[in-house]
Design a protein that fits this description.
The complex is a heterodimer of chains A (250) and B (647). Chain A has 250 residues and is an alpha+beta fold. Chain A contains nine helices and seven strands; from the N terminus they run ββαβββββαααααααα. In chain A, the strands form two sheets. Chain A has a five-stranded mixed beta sheet with strand order 2-1-5-3-4. A two-stranded antiparallel ribbon of chain A has the order 6-7. The termini of chain A are far apart. Chain B has 17 helices and 23 strands. In chain B, strand 4 and strand 5 form a beta hairpin. The model of chain B has no long low-confidence stretch (mean pLDDT 97). Classes of the chains: A alpha+beta (250), B alpha/beta (647). At the A-B interface, helix 2 and helix 3 of A face helix 3, helix 4 and helix 10 of B.
Chain lengths: 250, 647
């Protein structure tokens, strides 16, 4: 039940960033819409209601609407978060919505996270580097369940881009791996199935576009909808990098 | 070639698990592959699969004695004998390989912990000693309708983990993906498919892709049920639509719609069957565990069709919890404990917190059965080759392959995506290796022009016609209200009439926005007619099938009727016809004779002919319905009689 359910329904005012790059007459501006709040109303419900009843040209992205697919990252009153799991009952009566920064704008609240994340995966080669090909006849290699759970912890990232949008460095340095990129690197680094050497990892992560580009402002840690332990992730990467550096010297 | 015309060896429509796994197989064989995806592939609906992937590895104590034959028995019984048994056999044999391959690609499967483990089984907490020998192998959890613990899992994010691993492989192989692109029309001539016309969802511009082979892997069509589905907004069934729009490719068993017992009420967000697999209870408003009385043998873990019916009946009997959104029942996870809920069911715990403000450690979870899965789809042979259309393939939920028949077991669909992806991908690669791109570009440009014309026509309409969203909402109400869990002839007739009227309305609908670019309203309008046609085929198929089988339950024909309906529905919509045409083919060669499923009703109308008579000439009869030749002889993979030592 929403917190405001017992009282009279609120009138919500949405101020939404509008710009359609495909329309030569479109100029970036804010546009206001008003709707009545309903119980359980999320931004998924509210934005669809606005599109279907007030302005059918409004662009935004939702797919799973259950905080799993990562499509609906947006700035809600200045803070990046997932629209689908943001309940209006947790927001003031005036809600300002902007597209995520860093990513290329497609239109209104819709941004191109797909291209950004594919480039990140390509650059950091975020896949298992196995020395041997898969053997369909063999039983699976064993893994300790604690290790599987530790890998799973980092695997949970849904690439919504909220951390990237919140990151001061990613906002000014296009080559920075970004919090989600560093998390993905750490996830493969701790996976024994990925057989990259310390020296190879050092190339990927030990530079100003990698973990040493992070200024430690840690907005990423605060905004991550999946509550990934990014602080621990960076500490892990720095530690591994230093060990590799010392090993290289001796 | 211009940006308006792209050529490739293989065009894969859909960037989920089935499409991507298929693409990998074709690319690894050296072919050029292009994937079109509505969304960045990692946002495909495969990522929402939660609880597990069925594969008979037999790694834990409660999985001892499991093997592909036991899995085959469960799958065919689950299908209520509607499945193609050879396909079920192929699937269960290859599922262990596919799961292990995912481990190789990086999926962090939950592993066996050797030593004492504490589980909740049929309402009792029990301690079981897992052998040290199996420590570190892939672990299983229990799921509905299975004889053994078989579902392999990564917490409650199994689909997410599998999709990321497979997509990583797609990137590693350098496969081109065009995201925000939607296939809107197949390019075909004389029973041969040559690619598709697509619409860019960034710019609204159309482009043509000519290809030697085309694969439809677009998932299910749950959104014809409007908001009454666990499916993502992108599951609008457009793969089935473009196949049907060829006029010759049949859709199989479209009336076979699965309703998942536990969607969160009222938002209809999925809560995995893994909850009940791990020991959760279903309770009515009096907090009574009604499934123990209803299904003493399997309790909460009968198949989904059976559990959903008991739940619906319970609510009809006034035992639901009434709310302004309608009644619901409770899912009780409290006895599983915080440690379990925040690790092995972590995503469920998060969904309850984020979408209902509840903590399943202390709170009961409101649930209701909701549309979840499409057993039906583009009818294909065991190679994934579509009926009546050479060069067109389909895999995953978009296809009717058909291992699920009239009810799919939990965890079998996620496994199907990667198993079918491997197998169909191999067949696609073979097909492409022996064919050349022998197509006139004029054919592609004509298809592109006709797709463009449809968009122009929508934008050109004016006046005060109905809105596309109003039509969609009405479709959803009709489908859930009259083509739902319990069906009757009278209601189905009403549904057919209502959907037909909506089809007529669709031709009068008017857009409120003429915005240039992708224009979200236009994008949806372009899908609406196809969705209504799928809805009509589903409703009419349900009306014609006067029996109850699996998820298709007719209150006026409550028995499974093996004498008359041991068949697969095929629906074609011939070009320019006002209505779809229905025909029926044999389900395939039957090895395991029809019998009791082990749960649900044991009453049925028996076959009148012998199995030998049924099987005689079965493949020739399927060929008459459009089944094309397979790489290996039909029936070659059936291990006839292997199941006999197990029953």
């Amino acid at each position: 039940m929403t917190k405001k359910e017992s009282g009279k329904a609120r009138r919500l005012r949405f101020e939404i960033f509008r710009y359609n790059p495909e329309d030569p007459e479109s100029e970036p501006h804010m546009q206001a819409f008003e709707i009545d709040e309903a119980p359980y109303m999320s931004l998924y419900i509210a934005l669809n209601q606005i599109r279907e009843t007030l302005d059918p040209s409004l662009q935004f992205d939702f797919a799973c609407r259950s905080a799993i697919c990562g499509s609906c990252g947006m700035m809600v009153n200045g803070r990046p978060t997932l629209g689908c799991r943001t309940l209006t009952s947790d927001l003031p009566e005036v809600v300002r919505l902007h597209p995520l920064p860093v990513f290329k704008l497609i239109g209104d609240l819709s941004v191109d996270t797909g291209t950004w994340f594919r480039e990140m995966v390509e650059k950091s080669e975020a896949w298992i580097h196995a020395k041997e090909a898969f053997d369909p006849q063999a039983k699976e290699a064993r893994m300790d369940d604690d290790l599987a759970q530790a890998i799973y912890e980092g695997e949970r990232c849904i690439e919504c881009g909220c951390c990237v949008a919140s990151c001061g460095v990613a906002n000014v340095n296009q080559n920075f791996a970004g919090p989600a990129g560093l998390n993905r690197i750490a996830r493969f680094m701790m996976d024994p199935r990925d057989q990259r050497s310390d020296a190879e990892w050092f190339e990927v992560v030990s530079n100003s576009d990698g973990v040493f580009g992070c200024l430690g402002m840690m907005a990423c840690h605060d905004v991550c909808p999946k509550e990934l332990p990014l602080l621990e992730v960076y500490a892990y990467l720095r530690r591994k990098t230093l060990v590799a550096a010392f090993a290289g010297r001796s | 070639m211009s940006s308006e015309l792209i050529s490739t060896d293989v065009l894969v429509i859909g960037g989920g698990l089935a499409g991507e796994r298929c693409a990998i197989e074709a690319a690894a064989a050296g072919h050029d592959v292009l994937i079109l995806s509505l969304v960045p592939p990692r946002r495909s609906h495969s990522c929402a699969a939660q609880g597990g992937m069925q594969a008979a590895l037999g790694n834990c104590v409660k999985a001892e004695g499991d093997n592909p034959t036991v899995h085959f028995l469960d799958t065919v019984r689950g299908s209520d004998w509607g499945a193609d048994q050879e396909v079920a056999q192929i699937f269960t044999e290859e599922a262990p390989i596919a799961v292990r391959e995912l481990a190789h690609l990086g999926v962090p499967w939950t592993r066996v912990r050797g030593g004492k483990n504490s589980y909740v089984i049929k309402g009792e907490r029990v301690e079981i000693e897992e052998s040290i020998e199996n420590d570190g192998l892939i672990m299983h959890r229990d799921f509905g309708g299975t004889a053994k613990w078989r579902a392999c899992y990564a917490a409650a994010a199994t689909g997410h983990a599998a999709l990321y691993a497979v997509d990583s492989e797609v990137v590693r192989l350098g496969i081109t993906v065009r995201d925000r692109a939607e296939a809107v029309e197949l390019i075909h001539e004389g029973g041969r498919c040559w690619g598709a016309v697509a619409r860019c969802l960034r710019t609204g511009k159309h482009f043509a892709v000519v290809a030697k082979a085309t694969v439809i892997a677009t998932g299910g069509y749950g959104r014809i049920y409007g908001q009454y589905t666990t499916n993502a907004t992108i599951n609008e069934g457009m793969g089935a639509v473009i196949a049907m729009n060829t006029g010759v490719v049949p859709l199989g068993n479209m009336e076979a719609i699965q309703f998942h017992p536990t969607a969160l009420a009222p938002s209809n967000i999925l809560v995995t069957e893994g909850c009940r697999g791990d020991g959760a209870y279903l309770l009515d408003k009096d907090l009574h565990r009604f499934m123990v009385d209803a299904e003493p043998a399997k309790q909460e873990l009968a198949s989904r069709d059976v559990v959903s019916r008991h739940m619906k009946q319970r609510m009809r009997d006034g035992k639901g919890v009434d709310t302004p959104y309608g009644p619901h029942l409770w899912l009780d996870l409290r006895h599983l404990g915080e440690q379990h809920l925040t690790t092995k069911l972590r995503e469920v715990w998060e969904i309850c917190r984020d979408f209902a403000g509840l903590n399943p450690v202390n709170d009961l979870i409101p649930v209701q059965p909701t549309q979840h899965y499409s057993m039906g789809g583009v009818r294909v042979n065991k190679d994934g080759q579509a009926y009546n259309m050479a060069g067109l393939f389909a895999a995953g939920e978009a296809a009717c392959w058909d291992m699920h028949g009239f009810n799919r077991l939990g965890g079998n669909s996620l496994a199907e995506t990667v198993v079918a992806g491997r197998i169909v991908g191999r067949r696609v690669a073979e097909f492409v290796a022996t064919s050349s791109l022998d197509v006139q570009t004029g054919l592609a440009f004509a298809a592109k022009a006709s797709a463009e014309q449809r968009a122009i026509a929508w934008l050109g309409r004016s006046g005060a016609g109905p809105s596309v969203y109003a039509i969609r909402n009405a479709m959803g109400e009709t489908m859930m209200g009259k083509v739902g869990i319990f069906r009757t002839g009278g209601e189905l007739e009403e549904a057919v009439a209502e959907i037909s009227a909506l089809l007529a309305d669709c031709d009068k609908a008017v857009l409120r926005s003429k915005a240039p670019g992708m224009n979200p309203e236009l994008s949806f309008a372009l899908r609406l007619k196809g969705m209504l046609r799928l809805a009509l085929v589903t409703a009419k198929g349900a009306l014609l099938r006067t029996e109850s089988r699996g998820a298709h339950y007719r209150s006026d024909y409550p028995l499974r009727n093996d004498a008359e309906w041991l068949s697969r529905t095929l629906a074609r919509w011939p070009a320019d016809a006002a209505e779809p045409e229905f025909s029926y083919e044999p389900v395939g060669e039957i090895d395991l004779p029809p019998g009791h499923r082990g749960y649900g009703s044991d009453e049925r109308i028996e076959m009148t002919e012998s199995l030998e008579q049924y099987n005689d000439g079965v493949y020739e009869r399927q060929a008459k319905h459009g089944r094309l030749a397979t790489a290996e002889l039909p029936g070659s993979r059936l291990r006839r009689g292997d199941w006999k030592e197990l029953v």
